[in-house]
């Protein structure tokens, strides 16, 4: 493999790699603003300067591909001066908003200024200001903070496929906006806030809610559809504040859709059922288990299980059924019209899949039949749901039957249930799910459930009169 | 010395614009016939190389070499684009070619397109040249009518179409990749290089972008042969003649033509320009369009051509000489020049977008007596943070004048800062 | 969306289409043609151009706002664009601009109340050897002085 030298260290590279990628492997982090590995290279911000032997001018590392024998310096005096110059230019018009800006603490401009800029301000002219447009419900725009890296324009054009974020005017007056106050139409608008290196584009949903440095980050998988985009839940004090995508080149690359990004809210909805309910009354667990046993002991209830449950939960159900309700039928439900992986297909040209549950493939792999094959059901039906599976169409198959719900439900969803036993949402448990590509991915618990919620395995064991294993979830 | 000229003797008369005049008085389209029917594309490029024909848009890059970068075999179509965006302050020479002898440009495009294998050439003309675009289109229609454009020209089997594409008011579209983006219907923002236009230019195809005057010289190169053309130039590596736009405080401003390297800057000003208006003292000369570093009155004995001017720290650029006499306020002039670059900056890269405007603000403060003593150093430092650090040459063009004006005329700036001089 | 542009626009553009490998390259010619008919480029016209080209209207606006010749606001019947760049500046363009402002009673960048004149500052027009110069709509007027400018303005005041 060809080699080049970065700051005296020899590094191998694949032809076609730019110096930013190669330097990273040598342990050198070159500062960037406009460069993003998922977008085309424009070499506009002029922050990623490096010195390349035999080239008289400083080169931008993002647009310079490594070559055999190339000698690169990233810390030499000209580079240091070049970066400081760029930082000075970028801060000329940037408002000192850090105390009130959401981006503070995770801001590329702050970090690069601290690392490579000057502490002194030589600019004493009036700063340029803009009038902001309303970009719709997802993104808050603050154009005064913009450093014109154009990542957002390129994202809209290249990834979201809607060229609605545009630059108008030219030179010092460039305004990056949607025109005439049109809201953003793309269903991937949340990514704008992820890629913006300053607080110019921020999430309205997250605005002023929590400081970035207070958040804990748990890597997990989105439950929004069968794509299984990798993401992180950011939380503090057992409350989730936002979700952001995590890089996975084989699944979602760097992005996620808004539906998946904001999906977690329902798990923190104040009307979520988190204690056992019999009709309108909240009851204690032992009472609830007894009511359930009275309904199903020695009988063959029908089990409707959501394909939003994990492989572990589905397997537990199968084991429970074969041990205690042999002959009972089990069907999985999730998205109306998308009953099998054959029905599942991309819902758009970017990431979304038609199946609105994350584990359709997993349920099928375990041999569970889809609800479309259900001809009839027993008098008692157990509906076990992770929270995302579409309830109403499934319940239409079992009208007039006695329904028991186990899992995640909101108040408005339980009117046809005589008994509801609260379970764990995807943010509250570990587990394995299988995406549409057949990839097994792990969800991880970010938040602790309330002590009135119980894991599915515990509920089933109590119902079977077995003592719960210590620590089982 | 008496000059042998190729162009100016045909200028200034509207009646010379006709195809008839071109055919009868300028051996019109005979070079194209010679190239298309008796030469190979490689032979044409060889002659242009031998001719030492430098690009006449501002960069001075040898045209034959530029054409040889276009790949011979290509799955994609190849394009020849004529840069008629002439917007460098001080420059108005291409305009005269287009309005008085447009056919020489068309013939040059025929030969050039043949040389690189282009079937459709574009003339990107600045939007303000409304009249010139109209005249070009009329000449092109004439050429189509007589078979000098279109299918099977001279029965050679070579086809060529030419389309005039109007710009809309952006100096940065004179930069070749900004021009190509504008041709493609985008904002005229320069592109990252590599890839270079010879590999991926107009519509992602191999492209050569050449200046009007450069292409207009090609028929002469083919007619006389490359070596004869090179000999017209009186200096090494520069063949042929150069059109010069002489303006400012001379008694006879105008577009002149000299054999390359045959006169010094002083000779041009005195002999062609007739000396300074009002017989005042010369103060300074901007030798190659506003992007070129300024020369003071002691520095004008330099031979006026690409390399001699580079050696004295300036450039020939678009051969636009602006003469400045002793009564001129150079601080005010520099502010105007800097304002131009700030206005024309495309805004893509940080140093140019932020820095040009900052330089304008500082100069404004200096001129109006609001500057701090350290502001002059600051101005030069900002200029040095822009020059060499930008995506395209506009940053260098903005920084060059600032650095050279302050270096050579520092006392003028200081007198404003110290309050000794006040802006009227 | 009603049609704001005439048949002439569409037939002119249709003739140009085969000269370019894709429709997007027609954006600049289309905007010139639309402005020629309409005088300036309001939002509806930009949208219609966007529909014709087949791109999002925001893209048309993005391109149009880059170039100074496209008027995104209405201009007066006579748009006077006086060059104040180096060569013209050396030959007295600032005096001409001052005169024009006083004569028309407006500041550079404004339009007279009767809509007859707009006054702008221009960058180098390529008429440096016949400086000072200005553009009046699409025409060049070169070798200007205060008298010539005054005569021109007076003449345009009475032209219908």
Write up this protein.
The complex is a heterotrimer of chains A (473), B (424) and C (160). Chain A has 473 residues and is an alpha/beta fold. Among the domains of chain A are: 3-91, Ubiquitin-like (UB roll); 277-463, 3-Layer(aba) Sandwich (Rossmann fold), CATH 3.40.50. Helices cover 21% and strands 19% of the residues of chain A. In chain A, strand 16, helix 9 (360-365) and strand 17 form a beta-alpha-beta unit. In chain A, helix 2 crosses helix 3 and helix 8 runs parallel beside helix 11 (456-463). Chain A is elongated and about 85 Å long. With 424 residues, chain B is α/β, with parallel strands linked by helices. Chain B has three domains: 8-232, NADH-ubiquinone oxidoreductase 51kDa subunit (Rossmann fold), CATH 3.40.50; 241-325, Ubiquitin-like (UB roll) (Roll), CATH 3.10.20; 330-417, de novo design (two linked rop proteins), CATH 1.20.1440.230. Chain B is globular and about 75 Å long. The mean pLDDT of chain B is 96. Chain C is 44% helix and 11% strand. A four-stranded mixed beta sheet of chain C has the order 2-1-3-4, with helices on one face. In chain C, a hairpin with a 2-residue loop joins strand 3 (134-136) and strand 4 (139-141). The model of chain C has no long low-confidence stretch (mean pLDDT 94).
Largest inter-chain interface?
Answer: B-C, 57 and 41 residues
- Strand content of the residues of chain B, in percent? 5-15%
Q: Look at the helices and sheets of chain B and give the structural class.
A: alpha/beta
Major sheet characteristics of chain C: 4 strands, mixed
| C-alpha geometry of chain B | globular
- Report the mean per-residue pLDDT of chain B as an integer: 96
Total helical segments of chain B: 17
CATH hierarchy: architecture of the largest domain in chain B? 3-Layer(aba) Sandwich
Order of helices and strands of chain B: HHHHEHHEHEEHEHHEEHEEHEHHHHH
CATH homologous superfamily of the largest domain in chain C? Glutaredoxin
Task: Round the Cα radius of gyration of chain B to an integer and report it.
Answer: 22 Å
Task: Fill in the keyword field for this structure.
heterotrimer, A: 473 residues, alpha/beta, Ubiquitin-like (UB roll), Rossmann fold, eight-stranded mixed sheet, five-stranded mixed sheet, 19% strand, elongated, B: 424 residues, de novo design (two linked rop proteins), 3 domains, 17 helices, 14% strand, globular
């Amino acid at each position: 493999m060809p080699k080049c030298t970065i700051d005296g260290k020899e590094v191998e590279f694949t032809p076609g790699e730019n110096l930013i990628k190669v330097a990273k492997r040598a342990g050198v982090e070159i500062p960037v603003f406009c460069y993003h590995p998922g977008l085309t290279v424009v070499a506009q911000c002029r922050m990623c300067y490096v010195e390349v032997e035999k080239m008289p001018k400083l080169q931008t590392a993002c647009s310079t591909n490594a070559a055999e024998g190339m000698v690169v310096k990233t810390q030499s005096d000209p580079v240091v001066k070049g970066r400081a110059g760029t930082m000075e230019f970028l801060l000329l018009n940037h408002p000192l908003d850090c105390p009130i800006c959401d981006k503070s603490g995770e801001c590329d401009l702050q970090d690069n200024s601290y690392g490579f800029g000057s502490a002194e301000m030589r600019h004493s002219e009036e700063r340029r200001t803009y009038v902001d447009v309303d970009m719709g419900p997802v993104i808050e725009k603050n154009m005064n903070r913009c450093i014109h890296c154009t990542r957002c324009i390129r994202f809209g054009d290249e990834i979201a496929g809607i060229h609605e974020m545009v630059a108008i005017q030219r030179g010092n007056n460039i305004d990056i906006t949607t025109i005439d106050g049109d809201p953003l139409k793309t269903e991937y608008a949340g990514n704008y806030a992820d890629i913006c290196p300053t607080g110019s584009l921020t999430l309205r949903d997250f605005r002023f809610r929590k400081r970035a440095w207070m958040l804990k980050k748990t890597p997990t998988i989105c439950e929004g559809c069968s794509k299984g985009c990798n993401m992180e839940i950011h939380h503090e004090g057992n409350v989730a504040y936002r979700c952001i995508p995590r890089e996975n080149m084989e699944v979602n690359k760097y992005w996620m859709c808004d539906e998946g990004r904001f999906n977690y809210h329902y798990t923190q909805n104040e009307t979520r059922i988190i204690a056992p309910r019999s009709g309108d009354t909240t009851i204690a667990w032992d009472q609830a288990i007894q009511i359930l046993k009275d309904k199903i002991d020695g009988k063959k209830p029908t089990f409707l299980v959501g394909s939003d449950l994990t492989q572990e939960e589905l397997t537990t159900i199968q084991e429970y059924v074969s041990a205690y309700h042999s002959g009972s039928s089990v069907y999985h439900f999730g998205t109306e019209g998308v009953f099998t992986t054959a029905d599942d297909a991309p819902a758009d040209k970017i990431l979304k899949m038609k199946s609105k549950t994350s584990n359709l493939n997993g349920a099928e792999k375990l041999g569970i039949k889809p609800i479309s094959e259900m001809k009839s059901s027993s008098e008692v039906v157990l509906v076990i749901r992770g929270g995302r599976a579409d309830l109403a169409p499934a319940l239409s198959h079992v009208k007039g039957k006695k329904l028991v719900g186990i899992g995640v439900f909101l108040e408005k969803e339980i009117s046809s249930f005589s008994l509801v036993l609260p379970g764990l949402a995807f943010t509250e448990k570990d587990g394995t799910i299988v995406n549409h590509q057949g990839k097994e991915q792990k969800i991880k618990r970010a938040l602790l459930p309330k002590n009135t919620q119980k894991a599915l395995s515990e509920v089933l064991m109590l119902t079977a009169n077995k003592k719960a294993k210590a620590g089982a979830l | 010395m008496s000059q042998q000229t190729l162009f100016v003797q045909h200028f200034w008369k509207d009646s010379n614009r006709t195809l008839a005049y071109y055919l009868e008085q300028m051996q019109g389209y005979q070079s194209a016939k010679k190239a298309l029917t008796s030469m190979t594309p490689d032979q044409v490029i060889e002659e242009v190389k031998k001719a030492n024909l430098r690009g006449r848009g501002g960069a001075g890059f040898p045209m034959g070499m530029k054409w040889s970068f276009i790949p011979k075999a290509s799955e994609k179509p190849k394009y020849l684009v004529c840069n008629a965006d002439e917007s460098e302050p001080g420059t108005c020479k291409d305009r005269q070619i287009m309005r008085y002898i447009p056919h020489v440009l068309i013939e040059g495009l025929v030969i050039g397109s043949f040389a690189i294998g282009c079937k459709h050439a574009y003339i990107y003309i600045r939007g303000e040249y409304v009249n010139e675009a109209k005249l070009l289109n009329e000449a092109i229609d004439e050429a189509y009518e007589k078979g000098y454009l279109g299918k099977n020209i001279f029965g050679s089997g070579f086809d060529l179409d030419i389309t005039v594409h109007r710009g809309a008011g952006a100096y940065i579209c004179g930069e070749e990749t900004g021009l190509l983006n504008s041709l493609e219907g985008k904002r005229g923002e320069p592109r990252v290089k590599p890839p270079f236009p010879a590999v991926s230019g107009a519509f992602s195809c191999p492209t050569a972008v050449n200046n009007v005057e450069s292409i207009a010289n090609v028929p002469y190169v083919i007619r006389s042969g490359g070596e004869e053309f090179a000999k017209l130039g009186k200096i090494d590596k520069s063949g042929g003649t150069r059109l010069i736009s002489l303006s400012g405080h001379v008694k006879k401003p105008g577009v002149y033509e000299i054999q390359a390297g045959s006169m010094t800057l002083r000779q041009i000003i005195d002999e062609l320009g007739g000396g300074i208006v009002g017989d005042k003292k010369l103060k300074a000369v901007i030798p190659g369009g506003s992007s070129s570093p300024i020369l003071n009155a002691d520095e004008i004995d330099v031979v006026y051509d690409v390399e001699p001017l580079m050696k004295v720290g300036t450039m020939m650029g678009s051969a636009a000489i602006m003469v400045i006499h002793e009564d001129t306020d150079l601080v005010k002039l520099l502010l105007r020049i800097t304002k131009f670059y700030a206005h024309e900056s495309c805004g893509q890269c940080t140093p140019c977008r932020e820095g040009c405007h900052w330089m304008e603000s500082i100069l404004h403060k200096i001129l109006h007596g609001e500057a701090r003593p350290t502001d002059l150093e600051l101005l030069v430092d900002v200029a040095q943070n822009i020059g060499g650090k930008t995506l395209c040459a506009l940053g260098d063009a903005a920084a060059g004048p600032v650095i050279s004006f302050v270096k050579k005329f520092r006392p003028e700036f200081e007198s404003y800062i110290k309050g000794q001089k006040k802006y009227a | 969306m009603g049609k704001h542009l005439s048949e002439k626009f569409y037939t002119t553009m249709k003739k140009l289409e085969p000269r370019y490998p894709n429709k997007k390259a027609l954006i600049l010619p289309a905007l010139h043609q639309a402005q020629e008919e309409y005088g300036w480029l309001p939002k509806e016209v930009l949208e219609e151009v966007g529909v014709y080209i087949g791109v999002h209207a925001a893209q048309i606006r993005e391109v149009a706002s880059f170039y100074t010749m496209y008027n995104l606001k209405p201009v007066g019947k006579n748009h006077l664009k006086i060059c104040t760049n180096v060569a013209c500046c050396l030959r007295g363009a600032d005096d001409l601009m001052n005169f024009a402002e006083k004569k028309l009673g407006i500041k550079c960048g404004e339009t007279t109340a009767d809509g007859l004149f707009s006054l702008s500052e221009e960058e180098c027009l390529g008429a440096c050897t016949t400086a000072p110069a200005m553009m009046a709509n699409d025409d060049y007027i070169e070798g200007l002085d205060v008298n010539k400018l005054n005569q021109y303005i007076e003449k345009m005041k009475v032209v219908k």
